[in-house]
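Incident log, structure service

09:12 report received: a user says their structure output differs between two submissions of the same chain.
09:20 pulled the input from the user's history:
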Amino acid sequence: MVRKMVLYLTAALMGMLAAVALSAVFTVTSVTGSGMEPAVKNGENILINKLAYKSFSSEKPQVGDVVAFGSDVHGEEGEGSVLVRRVAGGPGDKVEIKDDIFYLNDKPYEKHMVEAVHMEPMGEVTLGKDEIFVLSDDRSSSMDSRNEAIGIIDIGECIGKVCFH
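09:34 re-ran on a clean worker, output below:
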């Protein structure tokens, strides 16, 4: 009897330790807004790897990654919320918008774009070694690096990489 209780207590303790360890690495949140549709839909739950881009990790955000970062801007996702956007330019890349086309390193980049939309022109910018340029998949939503209130994101501001949705 005592042996079973010790076994059950040990299993419960191990379960709690595993839950704490997992919550230190991952977080689950619900998406509010349509900026990343159709890839990530409004109301969908996503899993964010919080350790993906931390200073002790050699991994840097890659073009095409979906990242989560904090924002104090009031938009469709609310004020002071977590924004989820796609990396369109990484460290050292050149980005520019002209004639409603986003250019990455002097080449049109239209991957993950829902449909062609009007985009305000933006002169060429070369990203720093710890900077990324993020875009909404639905380019009609401008709550991304095109909006000066969001701007270019420092990798240290990333909460993590969206790894499952």
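09:41 both user submissions now match this output. Likely a transient worker issue. Closing.
09:42 reviewer note: Residues 39 and 54 are 25 Å apart (CA to CA). Residues 2-25 form the longest helix (24 residues).
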